[in-house]
Amino acid sequence: MKIMVCGKGGSGKSVVSVLMAKVLTRTHKVYLIDSDESNVLLPKLLGVNPPKPLVEYLGGKKNLFSKGEVNIVKALAKAGKGVKLDNLPSEYVSTSHEGIKLVTIGKVRNFGEGCACPLNFLTKTLLKNLTLNKNEIVLVDTDAGIEHVGRGVEEGCDAILAVADPTAEALTLAKVLKETFQSLNKKFWLVLNKVAPKIIKPMKEKAENMKLEITGEIRFDEEVFESCMDGGVLHSKEALADVEKILKNIGLI
Questions:
Q1: Nearest 5°: CA angle at 236, between 232 and 240?
Q2: What phi and psi values does residue 144 have, to the nearest 5 degrees?
Q3: Cα–Cα distance between 175 and 179 in angstroms, integer?
Q4: Which CATH superfamily groups domain 2-249?
Q5: pLDDT tens, 195-219?
Q6: Strand ranges (DSSP E) for the chain?
Q7: Does pTM top 0.90 for this prediction?
């Protein structure tokens, strides 16, 4: 299954992606694809060195559109039959001590470098043509907001998990995502993140008024907060337990 983790900036997409990967790797082979062109913390959260960006494997950002989808697929499949993440050279994949495999699409880091459109195009092409091996799950940590929706990146995924922190903006974005993907026959889950006991009830009420069904809640976890402040390996007990419960409820474990 290919799952895209979406939400507004600061909602906790990267943390939730890593927590999901930590739980799922107990029973599955998990690839975590970093498609956020700005955030660079995923390798640190996993405790690995950053892999080479996949965009470099294909000759750089400037060449992607000119190559076109067909040639990108040929390049990605050249190490074997079909597009499989297992076929990537080792320098383009970093593996955590739990066995989580990290692939990075690419980053926009320099002044005047241009927009992230080619990177989104690469993510879309990869997901559309990706063949999963038995017992593989791919999680995609997306860029903030819904720009990727306009570029059709979700076309190649099987499900969308929307992460909402305790803000009206986050729930509004979740509603847009749900309405967008209803017609595409994609599974849609909404998870509340960083919630305190006093916040859960009014947030659920607001979501209900917006006709949003909540799949589960992830508590505010001081260990997660401290890990993100330190910029190091992600540690968690409460949030990890909540994510495990959510994954059981939706039948992924």
A1: 130
A2: -70, 150
A3: 6
A4: P-loop containing nucleotide triphosphate hydrolases (3.40.50.300)
A5: 998 998 999 999 999 999 999 999 9
A6: 2-6, 29-34, 94-95, 101-104, 136-141, 159-164, 187-195, 216-219
A7: yes
